[in-house]
Amino acid sequence: MTDATVHLAAQPRIDTVATGFFDDARRLRSDYAGIAWIGGQPDADTGLMGPEYKRRRVDSRLFLPDTHWYDLDALEDVEVQLSVGLLQIPGTAQGTQGLVGAIADPVVEFYEHPDGGAGVGLCLWVHGDIWSNVGLSYRVTVLCGPDAVREPGADSGEILTDANGASGGDGADAG
């Protein structure tokens, strides 16, 4: 359960073909990146997140809107790398910035197609406690055989945006 709103702002996915260093095997490298605004989005003029100091639990699975749909059986040799970092910290009543809260041990998971379609897609799971709004940047890299992709993900121009212009919807909690 998440007590804070989560808005996912995805960047365009980058797909490249990589060749293995030791075996010359062709592999598809897909890089997914973006920002998860947790607790609220920053002010467009100041960039500050607002001084909402209230303890809130965060436990959200963020479905990456441009994920490829992969054949689960073809992912036996998949390699996944995840890096995250706090991007921005909130403004205080004194007009300064201060970090309050933490996002612990983010995880990338494969999940079943929500519309019952074939394949599995990517989900970023974040959890922790925050006392103020935070931004979390993420980069997920997937390296797999090209035949593991059942259905290519949406291009950046095809990603739907919500009424606030955030791509990927509100990152609603799925668990």
Give an overview of the whole structure.
This protein has 175 residues and is mainly β. The chain contains no helices and ten strands. 0% of the residues lie in helices and 46% in strands. The strands form three sheets. Strands 1, 2, 3, 6 and 9 form a five-stranded antiparallel β-sheet that branches. The protein has a three-stranded antiparallel β-sheet with strand order 4-8-7, with no helix packed on it. A hairpin with a 7-residue loop joins strand 7 (101-112) and strand 8 (120-130). The radius of gyration is 17 Å and the shape is elongated.
Low-confidence residue ranges: 156-175
Helix-strand category? mainly beta
- Main sheet record: 5 strands, antiparallel
Count the strands? 10
Per the principal axes of the C-alpha atoms, what is the gross shape?
Answer: elongated
Helix percentage range: under 10%
* End-to-end gap: 7 Å
The SSE order reads EEEEEEEEEE
Mean pLDDT: 79
Supply Rg. Answer: 17 Å
Percent of residues in β-strands: over 45%
Number of helical stretches of at least 4 residues = 0
